[in-house]
Design brief:
By secondary structure, the protein is mainly alpha-helical. 82% of the residues lie in helices and 0% in strands.
Length: 129
């Protein structure tokens, strides 16, 4: 795992627990065992880090949805697998993180909303059909 992946992984864990705004780049650096300079070589700023994490999150969600869709036995099985995955995805997420996204990272939050409104809605629509 390279330093970029470590930073994203540790940051997401901190954001999930404490919210985005309350976690500083100093805290991220300490948790990753690197300097802030190292983090800033990979990410221009905290916004870029949050954006990279959420883009990866959206990509994983799409891959998972496609996997569930292809490997489920039937439409009902697909729904249950999807619900299990959604539960795992939000397990341990502090609501403050979502609040921070909505209030302070509106562009990123909008990407999540578009993803939810288009991709996920389309997956569920196809399932119901």
């Amino acid at each position: 795992m390279d330093i970029t992946e470590i930073v994203k992984f540790k940051s997401y864990d901190l954001f999930r627990r404490y919210g985005i705004r309350s976690v500083t780049m100093d805290e991220i650096a300490v948790q990753c065992g690197v300097s802030k300079k190292t983090i800033y070589q990979a990410f221009a700023d905290k916004d870029a880090l949050v954006s990279a994490i959420m883009e990866e999150h959206i990509e994983k969600a799409e891959k998972n949805c496609m996997h569930v869709q292809q490997h489920s036995e039937n439409a009902i099985h697909e729904i249950f697998l999807s619900l299990d995955w959604v539960h795992q995805m939000f397990d341990g997420v502090n609501p403050i993180m979502l609040y921070d996204l909505r209030k302070y990272y509106t562009n990123i939050f909008q990407k999540l909303e578009v993803h939810k409104a288009h991709f996920l809605a389309d997956i569920f629509r196809k399932n119901f059909e």
